[in-house]
Amino acid sequence: MPYELYYWPTIQGRGEFVRLALEDAGAEYMDVARGRDEDGQGLGAMTALMEDPSIARPAFAPPFLRDGAIVIGQTAAILLYLGPRLGLAPASEADRLWTHQIQLTIADVVAEAHDTHHPIAVSLTYEDQKPEALRRAKDFRVNRIPEYLAWFDHVLGRSGGRYLTGETITYADLSLFQLVAGLRYAFPSATERFLRDNPRVAALHDTVRQRPRIAAYLSSPRRLPFNEQGIFRRYPELDP
Q: How many structural domains is the chain composed of?
C-alpha cells in the first residue's frame, strides 16, 4: 500500500520535508488532503483520522504519516521512520541518531523562521504583531541565520563527503535543501549574504536541486510555490 501523507493542502510547510524524502526515493504515496472528498480524501479525511478513536497514538497536528496501522506525527519522527525504509538513512545506529539530531536542528531553524512573522501568537495576524515581528526578524537575520548556516557548513566540512553524513545522501540533506530554499524566499538579502560565507551549504542546495527526481518534482504541479500562508513568508520590511 502507498504511504499516506496528511498535511494542509495549500502550503508547503512542515509537510514538504517529508514530501521531498518520498519524492527523492520514488516512493508511492498519497497526499491525502490534496485529494478529492468524493474519493475519500481531502481535508475531511485528515480531520477524520486525527479524531479516529481507534488510533491509540493520535498526532497533535499535521504533518502525520500513515503506513498501514502505524500513524506517526512530527516531521523529524516521520523522517526517522521513513529514512531506513527509503534508503535515506545511514546503516549504523550512531549515524542514524546523528542524522536525526541534524534534522531536529533544522526543525529549530524552521520554528524560528516562523516566529519572525508570528512572534506573539499564531492566533494573531502578522499585521497585529508587526512591530514585534520587525524586532524578531532583525535578530533572526543578524544573529540566527549566520549561526545556523555556519554550523551546517561546519558539519559538511567534517563529514568526509559532500553530504551531511558523508558520501551518501540522507533525508537531512533533502531537508537542508528545503530550509535554504525557504530562507532564500523569506530573507533573500540576508540569506545570500551569509551563503557566500558558507559555500558548502550553498553547494549542497544546488546538488540536491539537480537530483533527477527532485528536479522533476520541483518542476511539477506537486511542488506548491512558497506563499504568505506558510512557514517561510516574504515580507520585504523584514529583510530590508
A: 2
